[in-house]
Design a protein that fits this description.
By secondary structure, this protein is an alpha+beta fold. The chain contains twelve helices and twelve strands. The strands form four sheets. The chain has a five-stranded mixed β-sheet. Helix 7 (192-199) packs across helix 8, helix 8 crosses helix 10 (257-273) and helix 10 (257-273) crosses helix 11. The chain is globular. The N and C termini lie far apart (67 Å).
Length: 338
């Protein structure tokens, strides 16, 4: 093991960290630590100096650990959970336990050598939390609206319940509006230029602008529009093999549902108001393509336009006009290019 890079696999749960690493003799060591500051200190005591920590993305349970490791200037990687899951399945593992998962994560790190995690700005995490809260309120408002619709169809008296639900909806709409205003302020503080550029694309509204900036961490790791399309889960998937298996082409849907759904709503507007998108939609429909397929193509066109303004450090240009988002209003102001 001398001279080799040291790795430590960490399986994280709400209360515990199950870790696996190799000592100087190359023998695997297993420990279960608490998922708190005391456990983090013990983790650094047990592992060798210069150890590369590897863990899977868990939503929130890994957050305190990565902030601690970042503060201590340790090397660490956060891997997509699906990648770890497929890696374990590849070994035909029959049993599952936290100890076994920690071992497989260690092996994944040792064999694949994942890149180091780049810690985003603190404002990114604030914007992400606000965006998640807005999404939660949106889902709850829709849920209660559906309940009211169902109550109205019942033959019994339900007006009192309907009024209660309407009060809840009204309160949630107020809270959602406050969160949206706070998110807009935080976004302009974190990425003011990106807000102007992405928001200038015709038919990309405030919600889509916020999601695109937050989900891509300010386009920090986006090197092509194909990556952006794939990230949104809108890239095409072909499923065929030989002469017997010829599956229907569809989109992969491996990106964020919220971003994809928001872009779809933007596409409904873009096919009417964004000239390039309108021409694309009409051309596909004229060829006999399904209208939903044409809307997916419009979504991809919008993402190409978004990537274009970000990559070229400019605002949206269309037909000798610049559509610039006003600082005082949410309307687009055309300025003729001389």
């Amino acid at each position: 093991m001398t001279g080799e890079k040291k790795y430590c696999g960490i399986d994280i749960s709400n209360l515990t960290l199950d870790i696996c690493y190799a000592n100087e003799e190359g023998i695997h060591q297993y420990h279960q630590l608490s998922n708190d500051t005391m456990g983090f200190k013990k983790l650094l005591e047990l592992t060798n100096e210069g150890c590369h920590f590897v863990m899977e993305y868990t939503g929130v349970y890994h957050m305190n650990l990565i902030f601690y490791l970042h503060e201590k200037k340790c090397a660490y990687s956060v891997v997509n959970g699906i990648q770890i899951k497929r890696y374990i399945q590849m070994h035909l593992e029959r049993n599952k336990s936290d100890r076994k998962d920690a071992q497989r994560i260690y092996e994944y790190g040792y064999e694949r050598q994942p890149p180091l995690y780049e810690m985003p700005d603190s404002l990114y995490f604030e914007c992400k939390s606000l965006s998640n809260a807005i999404d939660t309120f949106t889902q709850e408002i829709t849920s209660f609206s559906n309940k009211i619709h169902a109550l109205k169809k019942q033959p019994t008296e339900t007006k009192m319940i309907q009024k209660s639900y309407e009060k809840v909806i009204k309160n949630m709409q107020k809270e959602k509006k406050d969160l949206e205003q706070k998110l807009e302020e935080k976004l302009r503080e974190w990425q003011p230029e990106l807000v102007k550029k992405v928001g200038s694309v015709m038919s990309i509204g405030k919600r889509a602008t916020a999601l695109l900036i937050i989900k891509t961490q300010g386009f920090a790791h986006t090197d092509s529009y194909q990556q952006l399309i794939s990230f949104a889960g809108l890239s095409p998937v072909i499923y065929q093999s030989g002469s017997s298996i010829k599956g229907k082409s569809k989109i992969c849907k491996q990106g964020g549902d919220e971003l994809r759904h928001t872009l779809y709503m933007c596409a409904l507007n873009a096919k009417e108001n964004n000239l390039a998108c309108k021409q694309l939609y009409e051309r596909l429909v004229a060829k006999g393509k399904n209208k939903k397929l044409a809307l997916i193509a419009v979504c991809n066109k919008l993402l190409k336009q978004v990537y274009g303004v970000v990559k070229n450090d400019t605002i949206f240009i269309l037909n000798n006009y610049i559509y610039k988002l006003s600082n005082l209003a949410a309307s687009f102001i055309p300025i003729y290019l001389i």
